[in-house]
Amino acid sequence: MSTELSADPDVRGDEDARSVVRRARRALRGLDRRFLPVLGTVLTLLVMLGIGQQRYSTERVDFVSMKLLSNLLVDNSYLLVLAIGMTFVILTGGIDLSVGAVVALVGLAIAELFTLGLPLPVVLALGVLIGTSCGLLIGVMVQVFDIQPFIASLAVMFLARGLANVISVNSLKIDDEGFSALAAWSLKFGEGRQLWRINASMLVALAVLLIAFLILHYTRFGRSVYGLGAGDGGAAVNLMGLRPARTRVWVYVISGTCAGIAGVLFALYTKSGFNLTGIGMELDAIAAVVIGGTLLSGGVGFVLGTGAGVLVYGLIQVLIAREGLESWWTRVFIGVVLLGFVILQRVLVVRRR
Amino acid sequence: MTPTQPSTTPAPAGPSRGADIWREVTHHGLFWPVVALVALLLACGIASPGFLDVTVRDGHLFGQLVDLLRNSATPLLLALGMCLVIATGGIDLSVGAVMAIGLAVSLTYLDTAPDPSNVGTVVTAVLLGLGVGALGGAFNGAMVAGLGIQPFIATMILMVAGRGIAMLITQGQITTVTSPPFKTIGSGFVLGIPTPVVIAVAAFVVVAVAVRRTALGMFLEAIGINREASRLAGVRSRRTTWTVYVIAGVLAALAGLVYGAPTMAADANNIGLMKELDAIMVVVLGGTKLDGGRFYLGGLLVGAMLLSTLERAVIIFQFPSQTTPLFKALVLIAVCVAASPTLRAMLRGRRRADRSDAPAAPVETVSEVTA
Q: DSSP class of residue B146?
C-alpha cells in the first residue's frame, strides 16, 4: 500500500517538465533505488503477519484482522506521530533526541494545567505548544549557533526532563471529564471477538501522517527538506533559490510539535502524566524511522515508510507477547530487526555504486 | 599540533602578559568549561563551608572534593573511549548498555563461583567483564569499520539490544553477591586515594600516552577528518577505527565494574542508563566537537569534574535531586553557545560567517597530515 502511494508524487511532481520516456525510465530506476528499503519494510511486515496468522489464528478468530490493525494503531499512535516528526529531522541529516522527554513534560504539564481549571481545548493547545517551543529552541541552537543537532537536542532533552521533574516527580492522574470523554470516545465496528475501534488518537495520528505526506511530497518546503539531506550544508538548496536556514529551523519545530501532539496522545492513552515516561522513546522513534527505510545520513526516505516501520515495531511487541516471552526479548528482537535493516540498506547503497 | 594538556593553559591568565594572551585564553575551547567549573566549585564552597576541605582519616583521603573525584571516575572512563571514537568522526551510543552487560557477566560469574571472595576468582570475573566489553566493542567496530554503517545507528543496535542481553544474562533478576575484593574496586583505597580515581587516572594516562606519544592520535584525527584521504596516506583506517571501538567497549565495561562494585548488584535495567549521554556531554564540555578530527583528552578531566560537581551542587543548593537534568541542560547550552563562533561574531557586531567556510579548515589539516 505504502509503496504505491509514495511512488505517486515523484512521478506527478515532475510531470510537466520531462518527456514520457525519460519519466518512465526515471520511475523504473527510482523504484530500484529508493523504494527497495521501503519494499523491505513492507515485506517484513507481511512476513511477520504471515507468521502471526500461521501461529496464532484459531478456527474462530483470524490473527490478521481489522482488530489487529486497530489495536496496533491505538497502542502506537503516539509513536507514529513521534516517528513522523523524526522523519523530517532525519531527512535533513539531523537528529532529535529530545522527543521522549518532551512527551513526559507535555503529559505532566497537561495534568497540571487541568488542576488550574483551564478548559480542555486551551490545555491541549498549550500542551502541543510546549513541544513546539522545545523544537524551536533546538532549531535556533542548530541553525543560529551552529551547534550539532545531537548536542542541541540532547540539551533540550535534559531541559525537558528537568522541567518535568520540577512539575512533579509523582504520577499525576488526569480526571478532567472532557479529557476522559475524549480518551474513551471511539467508533465501534464488527461484533464480539471481531470488534474493532477507531478512536481519537488513531484519527489524529493518521491525520498527521497525511499532512506530513502532503507537505513532504507536494510543497516547496518538502523539496527543501530532502535537499538539506544532501549533506552540503544547504548549499544546493540555497542555489536553487530555496531557504535552507528557515527550513532547518522548521524541521525541528515540526518534530517538536509532533512530540507535543504525541505527548497529548500518550496522556490520552495513559490518562496520567509521569516524569519517567518516554525514557528511550526517542530511540523507539528513530528505530521505527530506520526500519521504515529512511537513511540516517539524510535525503532518502518516505514518511509512509515510517508508518510501515511503526507497524513493524508494534507487531514485534505483539508477537513477543503472544509467544509468551519475557518483555526484554522485545529489545533483543528490535535490535536484530534493526541490524537486518541497516545491513540491507548498506547492501543496497553498495550495489548502487 | 593540538596541545596535550589544554586544561593547564587557562589558569595562569595574567592580564600583564598582554591582550594577545588574554584573547588566546578566552578563545581556547576549554575556557568556558573551566570558568564554569571554578565558579561552581567556589559557589559550593561558599554555600557549604566545609566543601573544599580535604582531611586524612585512617590514611585515606576524605572530603567532598574526594567524593567528587570518585564520582568523576565513571564518566571519565566512559568519556575516554567516547572521545577516541568521536575523534574518528564516530559516536558510541552503546556504552551504557555495555556497562550493564559487563557488570552482569562479572557478577553472574561471581554468583556461580564456589568462593566469590577469592582474589583469583575476582580477577577472572573482572577479566570476563572486560572481555565481554571488548566483544561488544568489536561488534560495533565491525559494523562501522567493516560494513561501513553509520556509527550512530550501528551502535544504537547494541544500545537497544544490549540491555535486553544483560537482562537475559541475569535472568531478569537483580544479581547480588558478596565479595570484599570485588567491592574494593568501587569503594576501596590505594595509598589513601579512592580506587575508582586510581583506575580512571591510570586509564587516562595509558590512553594519553598511547595517543599523544605515538602517531595513533594523529591517525585518529586523520581518519576523523577524511577517512579516504587517511587511507590513501597509508593509515590503516579500518583496523584503527575497529580498535578504537574495542577500546571504548573495554573502558565502558570497566566503568560498569567501577560503578556497580560498591553495591555489587547487577540491575540490568538501570545500570548505565543514559550514561552514554553523560559521556558525550563530558566530551563536548571538554572542548571536543562531535564532527571528529580534533580531540582534547585534557578537556575530559574538566568535563568529568564539571559533570559530577554539577550533580553535587544541585544537592548542596538544596534543589530536589531530580532537577539535575535541568541544570545539566543549562550548563550544556551555556557552554555550547558561549563557545559558538556565531556568538563571538554577534558580540563583535559582525555578520555571521557563511556556512560554506566550514570545509576550508579540514582541507588544510589533511594536507598537514599527509605531508
A: I
Interface test mutation site (partner B, options A86, A154, A243, A348, max chain B beta carbons within 10 A): A154
Confidence of residue B365 (pLDDT cuts 50, 70, 90): very low
CA distance linking residue A52 with residue A198, whole number of Å: 22
- Domain layout of chain A by residue ranges: 35-352
- For residue B328, the chain A residues in CB contact (below 8 A) are 158, 162
Per the rule left: phi > 0, alpha: psi between -120 and 50, beta: everything else, B364 is alpha
Q: What pLDDT is attached to residue A298?
A: 80
- Mean pLDDT value across residues B325-342: 82
Q: What is the pLDDT, as a whole number, of residue A39? A: 81
User: Which parts of chain A register pLDDT below 70?
Assistant: 1-34, 231, 233, 349-353
Closest residue of chain A to B292, computed from CA coordinates: A148
Q: Is residue B11 part of a domain?
A: no
Predicted confidence (pLDDT) at residue B12 exceeds the cutoff of 60: no
Residues A158, B328: C-beta atoms closer than 8 Å: yes
Asked if A311 contacts A337 with a C-beta cutoff of 8 angstroms, the reply is no
Q: Is residue B88 part of a domain?
A: yes
Q: Is A296 in the B-facing interface, judged by CB distances under 8 Å?
A: yes
Where in the sequence is the domain holding B152, given as residue range(s)?
A: 65-306
pLDDT tens figures, A77-94: 999 999 999 999 999 989
pLDDT class for B42, splitting at 50, 70, 90? confident
Residues of A in contact with B142 (CB under 8 A): none
Residue pLDDT, tens place only, A175-186: 888 888 888 888
**Taking the CA atoms of chain A, what radius of gyration do you get in angstroms?**
21
The total of structural domains in chain B comes to: 1
Distance from CA of B153 to the nearest CA of A (A): 8
State the Cα torsion B277-B282-B284-B290 to the nearest 10°.
-50
Q: Is residue B59 in a domain?
A: no
The answer to whether residues A348 and B160 touch, using CB atoms and an 8 Å cutoff, is no
Position B215 in a domain:
yes
B249 near B133, Cβ under 8 Å? yes
β-pairing verdict for B189-190 and B193-194: antiparallel
pLDDT at B209 over 50: yes
What residues of B are in contact with residue A343 (Cβ under 8 Å)?
A: 147, 149
**Using a CB-CB distance cutoff of 8 angstroms, which residues of chain B are in contact with residue A169?**
320, 322
Fold of A35-352: ABC transporter involved in vitamin B12 uptake, BtuC (1.10.3470)
CB contacts of B152 in chain A (<8 Å) are: 95, 296
Give the A window 228-287 contacts with B, CB below 8 Å: 233-235, 275, 279, 283, 286-287
To the nearest whole Å, the CA of B274 is away from the closest chain A CA by 9
Determine contact: B328 vs chain A, CB below 8 A: yes
- Which residues on chain A are in Cβ contact (under 8 Å) with B330? 159
